[in-house]
Amino acid sequence: MQYRIYKDNVKIKETTSRQIEITGLKPKTTYTLAVSAYNGLRESTRATITMTTRGLVMIVDKALPVNSEVMLEYMEYPLGAVPLGTEPAGMFGGGNRKKLKARVIASSDDQSTLELLQAIEDVKTNLIIDADDPYKFNWVNAGSGGKFNITKDYAELTVTGLTQDRWIGFSMDIIPKTVNVGDSFTVSVPLYIDSSVPFNAGAVCIKEHASGKVAIAQTLPDGPKDKWFNLEFTKTAGVKLTDTTHSFYIFLGRNGSMKVGKPTLYYTNEQPSSFKDNAHLRQNLQIDGINLLQGTADFTWPNNIGDFNSPKKVIEDYDNKLKMLHISSNIAGGIYTRWAGAFPNGELKVGETYTFSFDARGKGSFYAVGNESGGKASTDPLVHTSVTTDWKRYSTTGTITELNKAFVIYFSSGYDVYIKCVKIERGATPTPWTPARQDIYGTDQLDSGFSAFDGYKAVYLK
Predict the structure, then answer these.
(1) What is the CB neighbour count within 10 angstroms for residue 270?
(2) What's phi and psi for 396, nearest 5 deg?
(3) Do strands 57-60 and 279-283 pair parallel, antiparallel, or not at all (unpaired)?
């Protein structure tokens, strides 16, 4: 006898065994499973069950009450996940933030097991900044006949005295720095439109504030009136926008009144966010791959950049996000970090292994590279290596043998070199450059709570 196994009405397996394993299921997701008998000629009626998979389990080094609910925050720093220039608000993001509820399912003296009550993939990223706070909606053409009334739940607009079309309403910043042709967005806006508002009297759109170019537009519907409803639509951008400041608009162009609730805007085909099961959230997490040096995108190093033998130093643009340092001199010299400014909280300790890496191009050869403790920098394998004319990533690994010793990049006489993307990290394996947590999140807040990392993704419990 053969048995046919179905998942959500799709046959996934045919077997003679009475016990099978179904893999590839998503966490906290409901499935309909069915089985039928098949004798080679006829198939029996399917026996069906509906089941929901458990949520992801995470371990946190803290005792919490069993069955209590806690809030986790998921976020990504997008370098390596999305192209430079398209990352969320802030220098390097801390973007794609998602609030995740979890229940404590077990607890001991110093450790708890949490189960997420929702799938991370189910939490869409609202691209509208401060969408949950109507007090932060920007008023557009407020002096042209619009009266605004703001509450914690909605923003109300009443337009009177208009004798010609004049767009009056609200605008909001959105996360993408650039909207490209073909980008597909899904918009959802709670609306209450007064019966006095005529047909085609308003619109919801994404447009560039300075140029007025419209990427997406949707006319307000003629109904329903005098009741709350949800306007939802999916559209594809028809033009490219390079500035999304004040770019999400909700307008009235005729006399009338409407209320606007808290809108959402997300990429229609947003890539699912994932995290490994049994992730371990640790306090003061110290792992390889995290850049310990702040200000490496623009050379705003703590306590400034130290220099040896006073080379000429000029900070120049590499692109619209990154800076590069141009240094040159006829005599030996270079730059260094000041330990006290770079590591005020004892990020590196005696006995720890570090990796020091950076991009460089130009003319010259290395004189000393790495941390000066134990005299290692002047004997590093990179010493006497010539810098290439094209960009190349250089790295060296060592062990901290003394505190308060600088990390140096020194060259022999007659050098003219560009440097960017400096990184100091734990461990003996160099990883691609990323900013320090302080630069990503505006704070080292993850260190003050319980955090876990999976590549460019993070989950933390404060």
Answers:
(1) 15
(2) -145, 150
(3) parallel
